[in-house]
User: Fold these one by one.
Assistant:
Number 1:
Amino acid sequence: MPATFAVPPPPIPSVPVAGGGRFPVHRIYCIGRNYAAHAREMGMDPGREPPFFFMKPADAVVDSGADVPYPPMTANLHHEIELVVAIARGGSSISEADALGHVLGYGVGIDLTRRDLQSQAREAGRPWDVAKGFDHSAPCTAIHPQARAVDRGAIWLKVNGQERQRSDISQMIWSVPEQIAVLSRYFMLQAGDLIFTGTPEGVGPLARGDRVAGGVEGLDEIQLSIV
Ligand code: MN
């Protein structure tokens, strides 16, 4: 006999899988300052400090192609194009050598950020949740299942046809296996987890009416409109 819920259970958030079906999203982990040039543009020293993580709610995902409402409570919404890793098999304290065996595949996401609220939180020593974990803050393409590592290849983002971000996955400070190894020491990873792997330099503001496109070489292109 199924449990009786006091209110209707919320739908399971998901992103498409290339080739068919959908990937049910359990958690969204994000890594901060994983490209040296972006750390510098944020006023930070890109030394090889241990990676740090924050989270977005699972239901912040939005399919590529969607209209994204300009969020409330900000006057400085920023784009951050990122490689996204989809976890197929959970675990804790996963070794770097085993890490890619836990991956279903890869997609392309945008870590939408209320930059003004993030700056205020940084200065006040407060959490980043309102800056990073708002509704519709995690647009993501289809996940491409593949065993091959994504450790190089162009990553880019354009706003209204003008290039804003361009770098290469090889410029990551912490590789995908390193991120999985460290993250899985803090959390029990589960099938359905997404990892947003950090953004390169060139982050900047978005306005209502902007058309955003971005990609990672060999994966899908993400597109969305800010409305
Ligand atoms: Mn980010």
Note: Residues 176-186 form the longest helix (11 residues).
Number 2:
Amino acid sequence: MEKDKKPINHVAIIMDGNGRWAKKRGLPRHKGHEEGCKRIIEIFEAVKENHIKVMTLYAFSTENWNRPKLEIKQLFTYLDKFFKDNIDKFMEDGIRVQVMGDISRLPEKTQKVVKEALFRTKDNDNYVFNIALNYGSRQEIVKATKEIATLVKNNELAVNDIDETTISNHLYTANLPPIDLMIRTSGEQRLSNYLLYQLAYSEFIFTPTYWPDFKKENFEECLKEFRKRDRRYGKIEQ
Ligand code: IPE
Ligand code: IPE
Ligand code: MG
């Protein structure tokens, strides 16, 4: 298959740099989150144009609770607005909303808005908008381990039958295709507890652009770069 025709099924993004974007402009950090929320739907438009089925976004990590209470509150207010403003569009375009993480710790209002989005979009199957909220990959692996251990304890699964698929099936991403490309904005080159198991063979792109400055054309550039990559999966050219 020609390289530029290589299908991309799943892109995961770490939307980082909102705070620094705001600081650079002499604005409070929450203004960066406000502007960042506006980029989400623009980038998702580009995802659809490129026939990418799934976009997974890191919006709030288990470690982000260590931030000031006010910043957390403001961030969730913007996310509430994002869901409210876009739910009709999700319905029109056949987009299913999915969530990764323990949402029971989120503000009541956010839980309500998110649950409504999950419920309303549950039968859509053109695209998946998968958002990580109070997500931590280590927490996800602990959760999967407990579920698998319980199956073994109840004699529903033999230890020898545990394989890579068993683990994958107990992660939040169980029903999703493998992640082809992981993009992190803002220049940081780390995973910050994101999808440790799922990214084993994904391509990584770290771009210095802050998330609120990350436009469609920046995303297209990332896809172009991805298409140049040679994914060998341990094999050699013959
Ligand atoms: C990403 O931007 C959004 C969240 C982590 C919630 P940051 O808020 O981390 O912005 P920087 O990295 O401090 O610039
Ligand atoms: C990762 O970004 C989490 C999200 C983008 C939601 P952080 O800004 O929290 O990560 P660190 O602290 O720089 O590793
Ligand atoms: Mg950050």
Note: The beta strands are 10-14, 54-61, 95-100, 127-135, 181-184, 203-206.
